[in-house]
Design goal:
By secondary structure, the protein is mostly helical. The protein has 5 helices and no strands. The chain has a domain of about 45 residues. The protein starts with a helix and ends with a helix. The mean pLDDT is about 80.
């Protein structure tokens, strides 16, 4: 899949896909960490950053802080 196609899926220019937003809110914290860590490892930075921004727009602030902390810990 090309970067353009991945951006279309996430609709980064439009604030994100409702399907992806629903998926992120439905996941438990472990699933979110696994998904974002996988995207970080295998996708272009723009896709990872866009997905992280989308998560931040739909998660509660405490959930987002926990996700960011976990992602930092898995990056070490």
């Amino acid at each position: 899949m090309t970067i353009a196609a991945m951006c279309d899926v996430l609709r980064l220019e439009e604030g994100g896909s409702p399907r992806v937003a629903t998926m992120v809110t439905a996941m438990n914290p472990h699933e979110r960490i696994s998904m974002l860590a996988g995207i970080r490892a295998g996708a272009p930075a723009e896709i990872y950053e866009g997905t992280l921004m989308l998560a931040g727009s739909v998660l509660e602030p405490a959930e987002m802080r926990a996700l960011e902390a976990a992602l930092l810990a898995t990056n070490s």
